């Protein structure tokens, strides 16, 4: 089954104005369930725009976005928020963890927002953090964790609500090469185990090589 479909996506900034930028001009992408795809794009090619559209933060000017078989192209803000919370997970280059909360609280909170009971949320958070190799770090606040550990918590948080699709923008881009590889491997293990699909932007060919395939974004097209 298909986890994510981007059909004929068009995005033009400043349409009809002097500084018009056609960033996406018919971009197509299908992620099958369980498929992990590397997104490679030179700076300015529209990677952020594409991830924002796939993540329902932005809407395309034309084309269709389908998440887990559900067409969300014309969906209400409320519906999009529900799909964002339940079916999509996000990891960024910088962790964006809540600094005043512990690692486990950072993984529990999105579940509470999604209607999960405190008890179930805690159990799931412990399991995810354990999978990410953080069983001894659950009650640490982000500032007391290393960069690699912070990203591991961010990955556990992204998977907290059992998404169908993980969207990641340079998830290990701010880590040194060794840490980056270890964190990426932990991410891949968890993704494979959960069977979710992932679109992972990276500039690192070695990491791209560990994924199922690579798509490049250039001239407004994915290929
Ligand atoms: P990337 O993430 O690949 O660097 P972006 O998606 O951020 O690329 O941007 C792609 C192009 O669109 C760039 O030329 C950028 O300047 C332009 N752009 C992005 N957002 C806007 C906006 N809100 N208004 C006008 N131009 C924009
Ligand atoms: P990783 O490879 O996971 O990024 P590091 O090699 O950077 O880990 O860090 C090794 C250990 O040092 C970690 O277990 C981490 O808890 C600890 N550590 C790193 N930075 C800090 C910090 N600012 N405060 C407390 N402990 C830290």
Automatic annotation (TrEMBL):
Domain of life, source organism: Bacteria
MF terms (GO), sorted A to Z: ATP binding; ATP hydrolysis activity; transmembrane transporter activity
A cellular component term, taken from the record's GO annotations: plasma membrane
BP GO annotations: lipoprotein localization to outer membrane; protein localization to outer membrane
Matching InterPro entries: AAA+_ATPase, ABC_transporter-like_ATP-bd, ABC_transporter-like_CS, ABC_transpr_LolD-like, MacB-like_ATP-bd, P-loop_NTPase
Keyword field contains Transferase: no
EC number: 3.6.3.-
Domain (ABC transporter): residue spans on this chain: 4-223
Keywords: ATP-binding, Cell inner membrane, Cell membrane, Hydrolase, Lipoprotein, Membrane, Nucleotide-binding, Transport
PROSITE patterns cross-referenced by the UniProt entry: ABC_TRANSPORTER_1, ABC_TRANSPORTER_2
Gene3D superfamilies: P-loop containing nucleotide triphosphate hydrolases (3.40.50.300)
Signal peptide residues on this chain, from the entry's feature table: none
Similarity remark: Belongs to the ABC transporter superfamily. Macrolide exporter (TC 3.A.1.122) family.
Protein name stated in the entry: Lipoprotein-releasing system ATP-binding protein LolD
Gene: lolD
């Amino acid at each position: 089954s298909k986890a994510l479909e981007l059909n004929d996506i068009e995005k033009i900034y400043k349409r009809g104005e002097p500084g018009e930028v056609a960033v996406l001009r018919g971009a197509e992408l299908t992620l099958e369930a369980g498929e992990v795809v590397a997104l490679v794009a030179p700076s300015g090619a529209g990677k952020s725009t594409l991830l924002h559209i796939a993540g329902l933060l932005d809407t395309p000017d034309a084309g269709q976005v389908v998440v887990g078989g559900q067409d969300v192209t014309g969906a209400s803000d409320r519906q999009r928020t529900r799909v964002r919370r339940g079916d999509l997970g996000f990891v960024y280059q910088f962790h964006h963890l809540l600094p005043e909360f512990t690692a486990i609280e950072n993984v529990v909170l999105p579940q509470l927002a999604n209607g999960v009971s405190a008890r179930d949320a805690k159990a799931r958070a412990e399991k995810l953090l354990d999978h990410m190799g953080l069983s001894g770090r659950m009650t640490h606040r982000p500032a007391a964790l290393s960069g690699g550990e912070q990203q591991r918590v961010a990955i556990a948080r992204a998977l907290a609500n059992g998404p169908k699709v993980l969207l990641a923008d340079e998830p290990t881009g701010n880590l040194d090469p060794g840490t980056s590889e270890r964190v990426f491997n932990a991410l891949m293990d968890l993704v494979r185990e959960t069977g979710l699909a992932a679109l992972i932007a990276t500039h690192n060919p070695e990491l791209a090589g560990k994924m199922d395939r690579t798509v490049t974004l250039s001239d407004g097209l994915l290929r």
